[in-house]
Write a sequence for this structure.
């Protein structure tokens, strides 16, 4: 009889977990549009220029296909491209109307015409990238030294480099002289003074959030959302002192995060085909609101804070060879996935 009750209890627990997961999949958000745009090349980051109403998607690869593709942010109609730019990510200065791609060399263009202005020689291996409105600079991140190269967005001159003490992924700015960068290989978040280009602190994620691959910021309340690989958690912490407020579960294979101040929601995108939505009820109260089914491989994201929509990118893949994470992307299968209410 005891075995019977154990089996029943186990089945009940599994059923409860399945119902809970189903409930988390239900909610206000859903995939509202999927646009197959095809084309050769890989993909990494996606960037919404909210002011300029353009969506930038770098397609890195061989010299004859590497480019940055550009779409209308509202209709997703193709606008044009920046050719021969083997970039991983994009950042835009809305004041000077200059765009930058994290290629080597960094490419700089006019966002109105998409004409290349210049290329900028940098060291390291450009990967992530961010525009900081505090002093109109672009931060280009690299997993090898120098970890960050800082560029003046007005003229493309190099302002300096920063040793972040590890491999950076995503970064955020409060626009007031403070920058935070998640350091993936050290399981911490680096706090940086944007004026002096010095690291002022490292916030240890204390084993609660390993391999942070995404970072978002509630600027008003100075709260950071660090999205991690192992365990698959979102660590929510104070941007002022790094104190962890709470951790919440997210999907597997995160590589991007964002925050919408209008809805007080943080988002993380995962390669397992989920977008996790975390609701900030107050600066001390947070909950997983929804795990939105998206599409396998859609691991990076960008938020259009004007419409509240979230954009991700992926393709169809062949089965992975033994010992590898993924197979080859099926030709012309590359797609833009839009999540909204």
């Amino acid at each position: 009889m005891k075995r019977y009750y154990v089996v029943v209890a186990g089945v009940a627990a599994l059923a409860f977990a399945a119902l809970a997961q189903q409930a988390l999949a239900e909610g206000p958000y859903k995939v509202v549009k999927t646009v197959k745009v095809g084309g050769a090349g890989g993909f990494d980051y996606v960037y919404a220029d909210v002011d300029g109403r353009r969506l930038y998607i770098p397609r890195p690869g061989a010299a004859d296909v590497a480019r940055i593709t550009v779409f209308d942010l509202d209709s997703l109609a193709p606008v044009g491209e920046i050719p021969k730019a083997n970039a991983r990510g994009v950042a835009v200065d809305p004041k000077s109307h200059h765009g930058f791609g994290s290629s080597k060399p960094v490419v700089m263009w006019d966002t109105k015409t998409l004409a290349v202005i210049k290329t900028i020689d940098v060291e390291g291996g450009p990967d992530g990238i961010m525009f900081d409105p505090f002093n109109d600079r672009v931060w280009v991140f690299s997993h090898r030294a120098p970890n960050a190269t800082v560029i003046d967005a007005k003229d493309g001159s190099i302002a300096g480099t920063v040793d972040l003490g590890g491999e950076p992924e995503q970064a955020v700015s409060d626009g007031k002289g403070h920058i935070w960068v998640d350091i993936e290989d050290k399981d911490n978040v680096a706090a940086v003074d944007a004026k002096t280009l010095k690291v002022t602190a490292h916030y240890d994620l204390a084993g609660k959030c390993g391999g942070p691959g995404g970072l978002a910021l509630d600027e008003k309340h100075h709260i950071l959302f660090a999205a991690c690989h192992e365990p698959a958690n979102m660590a929510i912490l104070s941007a002022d002192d790094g104190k962890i407020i709470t951790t919440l579960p997210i999907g597997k294979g995160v590589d991007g995060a964002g925050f919408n101040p209008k809805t007080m929601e943080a988002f993380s995108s995962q390669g397992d085909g989920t977008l996790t939505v975390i609701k900030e009820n107050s600066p001390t109260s947070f909950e997983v609101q929804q795990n939105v089914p998206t599409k396998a491989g859609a691991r990076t994201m960008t938020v259009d804070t004007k419409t509240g929509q979230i954009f991700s990118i992926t393709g169809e893949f062949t089965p992975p060879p033994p010992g590898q994470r993924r197979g080859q992307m099926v030709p012309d299968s590359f797609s833009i996935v839009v999540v909204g209410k």
In short: The mean pLDDT is 93. The domain at 29-340 is CATH 2.130.10.10 (Methylamine Dehydrogenase; Chain H). Helices lie at 2-25. The first strand starts at residue 30 and ends at 36.
